[in-house]
TrEMBL record:
The gene is trpS. It catalyses: tRNA(Trp) + L-tryptophan + ATP = L-tryptophyl-tRNA(Trp) + AMP + diphosphate + H(+). This is Tryptophan--tRNA ligase. Its main location: cytoplasm. Signal peptide: none annotated. Catalyzes the attachment of tryptophan to tRNA(Trp). L-tryptophan binds at residue 218. NCBIfam families: trpS (TIGR00233). It comes from Persephonella atlantica.
Amino acid sequence: MRPTGRLHLGHYLGVIKNWLKLQEEHQCKFFIADWHALTNKYKETDSLKENIRQMIIDWLSCGIDPEKATLFIQSGVKEHAELSLLFSMITPKSWLELNPSYKDLKFNLYYQYLRDFLAGKQIKIIQTPPPQPYEEALEKSTGKQKSKIFEDYLREAFHKAFYNQKGIDFKGFKDVLIKFGIQKKIAQEVVKNLEEGDVGKDIDTVGFLAYPVLQAADILIYKADTVPVGEDQLPHIELTREIARRFNNLYEPVFPEPQALLTEEAKLPGIDGRKMSKSYNNAIYLSDDEETVNSKVLQMKTDPQRVRKTDPGNPEVCIVFDYHTIFTDSQTVSEINAKCRNAEIGCVECKKILAESLNNFLQPIRERRKEIEADIHRYEKIFEEGTEKARAVASETMSEVRKAMKLWQF
Ligand code: SF4
């Protein structure tokens, strides 16, 4: 896991919960991928150590157990870098250029730039999807088409332009912006900057392009047979298998071909209904205190059609209810379901029940967090010991690799 900041509930449900189960059933190695954090954040090293520390606290306070799994920090096992270097010698460049996540990350960077640029020109980006066709909604809401734009439409149009079969179509996108009501001059300027500016240059590095090779080394150096991943990571596991095959064919069969263990993606949205993410400022963190959780829950979007308490609601389109189904006991959930539909419960009351459920869930994590924070050096030591253990295994594999490749043995 890349140490890029505090963990939130989405991370817990999508990754940590699964790890807690896996550590009971397998010999697991979980590591803090600090070198991977540098692949696109190489300028932001000031916060790296603190992020690693926060990750140690987050993992341990959730119950990731150093007695059951090896926990370590990637950059402490230099053998990852050595194997990655050797793999880079045998990996065709085209395998990396075709890597889909490379393009996705580029899309996100460009899109973020576009949003920031428009916001800087006082063009308001409205996050709630309009209830009717775009043009109609704009006219009804403001009558001032030039100052507002709906996020959903903007993103969809930009996505179409970016993933155009004939390559990125920024020119066509400019026309779409103008159709959206953006002044021609502004549309021209933003498109020019996207085409010629510095956007995306940060990931135009060898390190970023080659990070799947480092990932393959991370996995294969422990001869891992299984890697728990989300669907978006499947191409990386396939690449790892291809690198292992290529190495085994060229030299000697050293590496097994690991299998992906598909983890279901967590369906927990952020408090505004979009994907939970630090950059959207819509996340509930594992380290949030009771008061913060209460206030975030009060801000949550509910069924947009339910204006008054006397209106019947629809829990199926309500984020608060999504959270209830995960964090509240099933009896209360079915009561809320019925009461909401019959307008027998108000949203504020419903949110208070949710805040209580979330605080009950987070309380034991908060208590462990306090203990760990009070004695942080002891827990950092646990990761250092884990790093030693991992290094012992990694260096055995490297001896085999050097022998297979007929390299000098030091
Ligand atoms: S009562 Fe609860 S489930 Fe129903 S709309 Fe309000 S917050 Fe959502």
